[in-house]
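hiii so um. not sure if this is the right channel but i have a protein structure encoded as tokens and i wanna go backwards to a sequence. like what aa goes where. can anyone help
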């Protein structure tokens, strides 16, 4: 399940910069909120590559779209050597922090999801996959990982390669990986997101 929109112009707006923690080190670009989004529950898995520049993944954050009033509670994650497979370097069910950012032009709630407390060893400069699935929402609604197509990404190896378990290759999503020993970007960099000016509403496809 995903939402599809056609967008002819958007501007990037800084929002809530002071409220977001300073994160390092792989930055795949800011939350857009108006391009597209991909389901990470109801059996769907979305995977994106990243290249760490420090040897320990300690957390990550990513942008989502939810129905108004929803709040994400948990998400299943894994870091692997191949697309949702190969060597599993770390995995688990994470309790998340869900921070509301705005409501986009199509009525979806745009939120920032934060996962902390990880301890996953990686090799600096190698390519890994972050895989997300089984996200839980208090009332059981779908939740969508926000696509940004790597626009505004800042790190080595970006924009990410990405895939969705039902359709295969897709454009990359909005996320940041925190690793110990990485450099700290400006906290406003991640929560810049597009404000649509002349986009056309897309269709919600529910694939239960």
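sure thing!! here u go:
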């Amino acid at each position: 399940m995903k939402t599809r929109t056609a967008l002819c112009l958007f501007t990037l707006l800084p929002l809530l910069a002071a409220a977001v923690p300073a994160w390092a080190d792989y930055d795949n670009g800011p939350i857009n909120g108006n391009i597209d989004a991909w389901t990470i529950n109801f059996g769907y898995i979305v995977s994106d590559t990243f290249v760490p520049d420090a040897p320990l993944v300690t957390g990550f954050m990513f942008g989502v779209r939810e129905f108004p009033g929803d709040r994400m509670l948990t998400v299943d994650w894994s870091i692997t050597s191949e697309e949702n497979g190969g060597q599993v370097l770390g995995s688990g069910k994470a309790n998340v922090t869900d921070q509301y950012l705005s409501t986009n032009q199509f009525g979806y709630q745009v939120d920032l999801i934060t996962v902390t407390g990880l301890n996953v060893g990686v090799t600096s400069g190698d390519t890994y996959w972050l895989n997300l699935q089984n996200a839980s929402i208090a009332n059981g609604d779908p939740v969508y990982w926000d696509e940004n197509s790597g626009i505004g990404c800042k790190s080595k190896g970006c924009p990410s390669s990405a895939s969705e378990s039902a359709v295969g290759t897709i454009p990359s999503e909005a996320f940041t990986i925190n690793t110990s020993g990485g450099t700290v970007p400006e906290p406003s960099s991640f929560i810049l997101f597009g404000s649509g000016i002349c986009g056309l509403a897309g269709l919600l496809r529910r694939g239960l």
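oh and The chain is about 0% helix and 50% strand.
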